[in-house]
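Tip: read the tokens left to right.
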């Protein structure tokens, strides 16, 4: 799981791929140059690193994901709760809401998720 961590710039690059996939490497180079001010070599280096981590694949110059954005961030969230709150979701929620007041809509959405899991 450690290899699945992304830095801030890697996250922006990964989002470019998830938003555009399947995307050609040439289009990715153009987009990374425009958005991140990267040279072609930087784009290929970071892409290779993310492919080695098992997040994306580059086959025949076409980049696609091996793991969805939703699955990636779900794993990140699980790891964060595990490492920071000893796996306790209630402890995480208590810490979260101690600094941020939830709206009625957010409370309703959380309640609906909890109720759906009881069924």
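Filled-in amino acids:
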């Amino acid at each position: 799981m450690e290899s699945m961590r992304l830095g801030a710039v890697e996250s922006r690059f990964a989002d470019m791929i998830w938003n555009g996939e399947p995307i050609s490497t040439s289009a990715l180079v153009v987009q990374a140059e425009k958005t991140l001010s990267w040279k072609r070599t930087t784009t290929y280096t970071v892409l290779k690193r993310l492919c080695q981590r098992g997040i994306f694949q580059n086959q025949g110059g076409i980049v696609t994901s091996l793991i969805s954005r939703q699955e990636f961030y779900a794993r990140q969230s699980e790891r964060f709760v595990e490492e920071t709150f000893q796996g306790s979701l209630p402890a995480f929620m208590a810490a979260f809401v101690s600094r941020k007041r939830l709206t009625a809509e957010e409370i309703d959405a959380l309640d609906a998720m909890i109720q759906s899991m009881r069924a």
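The mean pLDDT is 93. The first helix runs from residue 8 to 20.
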